[in-house]
Every structure is written in structure tokens, then in C-alpha cells.
């Protein structure tokens, strides 16, 4: 019995030890610190939410059983220095974690303290994207980073088709780093921040007004306001007074504004009137059970905390509430893993100890690394939604509500999430579907913009508050049909000017502009210098016959080309008369030779096929040669008199006559063209022959042709000669290279075509060797260049562009041509016909040879049977001669010899004789 009791005692001890290992045993009290700005929109709400979370945790037996959270709250008042002092005070009291700080500026400072003493810093409102776990491993962000908020703003800008924004922000860590992230996100979408309007922290209203006035002078009308609640409201009030919230403006405020508006029990109509049509973002929170409970208790919690001064719950309050619960879950896991709360002196602080700072009281939290690990592994459903950190230390599922301020309230027009972008469907619904961030899937509800309009603002105006555009135009002295300026009246006209005016009239907004002639008026100006006037801000645009070339596109933006252009070669040409040998020109030498050879081949083939059965192809050798030649070449005129009796011969002659018909028709057409159409000749055939020569080359003054010939084609500058007018063109070409002129002129096609309308002894030779066009030039990233491009395309589609062209550049007959060589027929043109004819000849000869060999074999067999042994061995040596003799004899004679010697042979060859006689009788008919 005693032994049994001992065994039971040992078993009970083992069970107690086993159970003890699985029970969370922690201290009675855990000290945590809370840092926030009590006198702020976010701080007031966060203070109440944190107190509520601590109370709920201490009353919940399922978590931290037996351990109470004790929070010490301190007011940082947005001061980094005060935040450091308060954080150090927390460290003197064995604080294991700090909830906060609220400010990104304070977080940057005290994160160094947290890293040194290994105390986790859990911020529910420090959204600065540069607060990363790489630099600050003990900083834990329990709200979404501004990296995602700025991505949502960039998607909004891209969605509405704006290309640039003006950023208005508080110039501290929070504002500066947030706007830098916005610039990065815009750049990913090929957008940009045009101007950064930085406001000094604590700036007076007069300073803010000066910043806003300067921002209003810029081109962009899309403003992104990233500020704190007090400074942000002041900016809207000043912008309202400066009429910067009227029609045509766009304001996008980050989540600070929604926090302010959500916290106010009753929205002030005066406050809302300063921000009508504004878009703002709100940290998205799901409809969870914890959220419903907190909302239902909020009014009671506020009365207990503030003594009756009411304020509502905003999204930052939910994240502050979840931060405390996140720490509680991490502490529960910390204690379950055997962690305990203990502190050790910091040897580096001990080295600088002394004085009144009492640094010896600061110590390192020994379990800080383990607690930090547990915090990063927490996973539960909180008030704002799922609470879980990804590998980068960011909360999962970042999302924002997009709110439009209308009248006396707020209206949600959609959502943004990094899962599917912009949508009118809540993120919780989208998480259940495959991600779809395509452009077609991006949707938002209608927006009421500033000025009480639903039409999406253009988002930009002309710089300097809409002053007249200074448009430079080339003051040309030649080809004034394109653009010309009257130096006395200042009037500008021409084809290019009319196109610009027609395009401007198609824009949905008015544009004030004035033309400024550029150039001396004595010669055409340099177009490179004209374009540089945009770079130096002398002109706001350039309108004229400006070619779009690579070097120019590097410094300015061009519209869609309104005229196709490219460099061509203009040269003088001479008429080439027909001489006595013009009849040989339709065919090349090779074509003549191949055709003659085929005449002989076909004649020979027909002779071989007809020789044994047709008396027209028999006779003395000289007669037969003449017959072959006569028959061959007489087919050219279809005048051959010799009759073809064999089926193979007729087959060959039909194919050949078809070939002759095609060749004869082509020859006749080509010769007619040569004899009746004027042929022009020039020593220059194209750009290659022009470069290869050493003769002078002309170009138009001010054109990019000079630079292209020298730098791209390697032409020596000494060969180039500048020409200023069509008369100089004509004189230089008439003189020629030997008398001080030029061999050719390289110029753009529109000028050359206009020149040719009045000069008929010149022509374009070769192909166009550059492809470009004429466009209107604007500064880089000019929105007006984009809108005018659309207008030019509209002019082209409606036919107005062609009508303007016909008005100024109506073309008459010209001598333009790109090929001065007469059209000659080559062998490859008829290669298919020659191939068919050759194949027919070969096939006919093959069949004829087979029949002839067969007849010869029967003939030999008949002779052997009649002659017996009288045939000697010498017959083998004469077999070839015998075969040729057999082939030369008329077919009827060969059969006759066989029948006279042996009746049996005659019977054996009866079929052959019958066939020959039938063929002969049909031929005679």
C-alpha cells in the first residue's frame, strides 16, 4: 500500500510539472508607456481608445491571466525633445514597451532610444515611410505607411488624366518624406510633381499665404495637401480667400483631413465652405466585431475621460486600440515562451554616467528581442481589421476610403487598395477575388469638384496666371507661303500659322497668345537658335515650319506632325532624245541573249521531233539548218509556214508561241513608252552617288540639312554651299558644279515640291532618305503640346488640314520624279515563262527519245531474225552509227525495209506502221 502511495505521489508531481510548463506565468503588473499629443485631433481620440483597450484587456481572463497592464501616458506636444525626455522617464520605471509616439518627427528621435535600450516602440500614427525596420528595428508601425497612401494619391492623379501636381506640405520629417514618396509613386506612372510648396512648421498665416500665392502662379492646378490638422485647416482657409478653391482647381488632402472631419460631432458649415469639392483619404477599417463594440461604448468612454466635451471616433482611434491588443497578444506569447521581465545596465551609458541626468537609472530590457519577435508574429482580428505584419514590417491589406466633401457632409466615392487599385467595391469583397488592377477595372463614383461642377478639371493653366503665350515664329525671306511676318504691321500669316490657329480653336479652353518674329528679315533664321529660345525662356512656344529632329526633341516637346517631311535631293535634269538604236532599249543585253538562245533551242527541239515524219524538216544538211533558223525566228511574228505533224511538236510549239506572245507584247509596250514619253537624265542617281562625288552641294539657310550632311553622312563642310531663296536654287543648279554652282540641293520635301511647281527643268532624284515631319515646339512636359496634338489629329480626320494645305500650297504640274532610268525588261521578269518552255522541251525530247529507242530495238530484232548469223561483231561498233542512221531515215522507210526482208517482222511492226500511216494521212488532210 505504501508503494502504491509513493507511485501516485510521483505521478502527481510529474503531472504538476507538465501542467506548469504550459501555463503562462507572468508578473502581476507590466508597465507600458503611452506617448501622444493630447491636444490634437488624433491624440484626443487615441488617449481614450488606448485607455479603453487596457481596460478591456485587464478584464479579459483569456489573455494575460493574472497580469495587469499599467499605462503611463505622457503628452509630447509634437516636440521631439520632450518626447526624448518622456521616453527616458519611461525607461527608468522598467517599461517593456511604448505605445506611440503619434508624431513621425518624435518617432525619428526616440527610435534611437528604443534601439539602444531594446524597448519596442509601437506607433499608431507615425506614417513617415522612412521609419523602416532596417534603420529602426524596434520601431513597429501599427498603422499603414504613407507609402501606400501616396500610391493611392498617384493612382487618383493618373485616373483623372492629370500629368503634374503641386505639393503643399509641412516641411518636417512627416511632410517632407511623404511628398518625396509621392514623387516616386508619380514617377512610376510617368507623372511628376511640378512644384513643391513647403511650409515652415509653426509658420504664420502670412507666410503660408505667400507660399500659396507662389504656388498659384505655377502651371498645375492639382494640389496635394500633406499637413497636420491645425496647419492644414489654415491652408484651406487661406486658399479659399485667395480663390484657389474655385472652379478649375483640384485639392487632394491626405488622411489628416478625414481624421479631423470624422472627429467633429457636428460639421461647421463655415469650415466646410472652405473645402467644397475637396478629395481626402481615410485609413480604411473593416466592419469587425471589436469595431462595433468600441463604437457602441464610445460616447460613454468619452464622457468618463473628458468630462463631457464630446468628440467622435476616427480611424486612428481604431489603430491605437489595436496597438494595445497587439502588445497584449505579444506579451502573452512572450510569457508562454518562458520570457521574463528583467533589465540590465547599459555599459555604454555607464561610461558617460555622472551629473544630474541620472543615466545610471536607464537599463536594457533583457527580453526586448524576444518580445519584438512575438510582436512581429501576432495575428488576430482587431477593430480596424486583420492585425498582422508582413516581412517588411507593414500591416497587411493597406486600403483607403476616398471621400468627396459635398455641401454639409462627406460622400465616399470609392476605395483604394494595393490589391486591386481604385474600385467602388469594398476591399473586403475584392480580397475574396483574384487581384485585378487593370485600367478597365479602375472605377470611382462621380465627383463634385470645386466650383460645383461634375466635369473633371483640366488640372493645369498657363504659367504666370494665364498671361499671353509668347510664340516665336521664323521671319523667313523665302518660301513665305509657309510662314511670313510683316515687319511693319507685325502681322504673321502662312500655312503653318493657319494650322496653329485652327488647332487652337478646337481646344476646350481659351488660349491667349501673340506671335513674335525671330530673325533679321534679311535671311532665314537658324532654327536651332529659334528652338533654344524656348530653353532660355524667351519664348513659350515656337510655331512654324520646324522639323522634328532628334537633337531638338532632347530639349523641347513637339506636337503631332502636321506635315510629313524628309530630306530629298533636287537636281537639274536633261531631256534624253531617242536615237537610231532606241529599239534595243526595251530589253537588257542579257534579255536579248537569253531570248535568242531560246529561239534556237525551240527550233532545234521541233526539228528533232519532226525530222522522221515531216518532209518540211528533211533534206540536205544546209537546207535543214536554214529551216531550223527560219522556223525559230519566224515564230516571233507567227509567220512560220512549216507544218508540225507530231503531237509532241505541236505541244512544244503551243507553249513557245504563248511565251513569244508575252515577250512581244511587253517589248511593244516598253518601246512605245521610250519613244513617246520624255526621258530625263541626271548624273546624280541618289544619296549614295551624291556622297561619292566631290561636287558642291547646296542647302537652305537655317535648315538642319547642313548638320545632317556633315555629322550623319560625313560630307565635308567645304562641299556645302548655303542658298537662301528659290532664285538662288535655280541659279546654282543652272551654273552647275563646274561654273561655281552646285550639282544638287538637299532640302526638305515641302520646300522642294513648292519649288518644282514653278520650275520644270529640275526634279527629285532618288528616294527620301530621312523621315520626319513639322510640328509646333513647346517646353518639356507641356500639357498644351498634348492637347494640340489631339487637335491636329482632329483637323486631319475632318479634312480641314488638307483644305488649309490646298489654300496655301496648291500644286501644279511639276517635274518631280524619283527614277530617271528608262524602264527596261530583265530576264528575271520572264523567268517563269522561260522555265515552263524549257521544261516542255525537255519533256518532249525525253518522250521522243523513248519512242525512238523502242522503234530502233524492234528494227534491230527484225534484222537479226532475217539475217541470222551473217551479222558480224563489227555490228556492235557501228550500232551508234546505225542508230543515228535509223533516226535520220523517214519512219515509213524504216518500216518498209523491215517488211521486205521478213513477213514476220512486218507483222511485228504493224502497230507502228499503222500509227505512222494514220499520222501521215491526218497531216495530209
TrEMBL record:
<keyword id="KW-0406">Ion transport</keyword>
<feature type="domain" description="Ionotropic glutamate receptor C-terminal">
    <location>
        <begin position="470"/>
        <end position="811"/>
    </location>
</feature>
<dbReference type="InterPro" id="IPR001320">
    <property type="entry name" value="Iontro_rcpt_C"/>
</dbReference>
<dbReference type="Pfam" id="PF00060">
    <property type="entry name" value="Lig_chan"/>
</dbReference>
<keyword id="KW-0675">Receptor</keyword>
<dbReference type="GO" id="GO:0009611">
    <property type="term" value="P:response to wounding"/>
</dbReference>
<keyword id="KW-1071">Ligand-gated ion channel</keyword>
<dbReference type="InterPro" id="IPR019594">
    <property type="entry name" value="Glu/Gly-bd"/>
</dbReference>
<keyword id="KW-0407">Ion channel</keyword>
<dbReference type="GO" id="GO:1901701">
    <property type="term" value="P:cellular response to oxygen-containing compound"/>
</dbReference>
<dbReference type="GO" id="GO:0034220">
    <property type="term" value="P:monoatomic ion transmembrane transport"/>
</dbReference>
<keyword id="KW-0732">Signal</keyword>
<keyword id="KW-0325">Glycoprotein</keyword>
<dbReference type="InterPro" id="IPR017103">
    <property type="entry name" value="Iontropic_Glu_rcpt_pln"/>
</dbReference>
<feature type="transmembrane region" description="Helical">
    <location>
        <begin position="827"/>
        <end position="853"/>
    </location>
</feature>
<keyword id="KW-0812">Transmembrane</keyword>
<dbReference type="InterPro" id="IPR044440">
    <property type="entry name" value="GABAb_receptor_plant_PBP1"/>
</dbReference>
<dbReference type="GO" id="GO:0007165">
    <property type="term" value="P:signal transduction"/>
</dbReference>
<dbReference type="InterPro" id="IPR028082">
    <property type="entry name" value="Peripla_BP_I"/>
</dbReference>
<comment type="function">
    <text>Glutamate-gated receptor that probably acts as non-selective cation channel.</text>
</comment>
<dbReference type="InterPro" id="IPR001828">
    <property type="entry name" value="ANF_lig-bd_rcpt"/>
</dbReference>
<feature type="transmembrane region" description="Helical">
    <location>
        <begin position="591"/>
        <end position="609"/>
    </location>
</feature>
<protein>
    <recommendedName>
        <fullName>Glutamate receptor</fullName>
    </recommendedName>
</protein>
<comment type="similarity">
    <text>Belongs to the glutamate-gated ion channel (TC 1.A.10.1) family.</text>
</comment>
<dbReference type="Pfam" id="PF01094">
    <property type="entry name" value="ANF_receptor"/>
</dbReference>
<keyword id="KW-0813">Transport</keyword>
<feature type="transmembrane region" description="Helical">
    <location>
        <begin position="651"/>
        <end position="675"/>
    </location>
</feature>
<keyword id="KW-0472">Membrane</keyword>
<dbReference type="InterPro" id="IPR015683">
    <property type="entry name" value="Ionotropic_Glu_rcpt"/>
</dbReference>
<keyword id="KW-1133">Transmembrane helix</keyword>
<dbReference type="GO" id="GO:0016020">
    <property type="term" value="C:membrane"/>
</dbReference>
<feature type="signal peptide">
    <location>
        <begin position="1"/>
        <end position="20"/>
    </location>
</feature>
<dbReference type="Pfam" id="PF10613">
    <property type="entry name" value="Lig_chan-Glu_bd"/>
</dbReference>
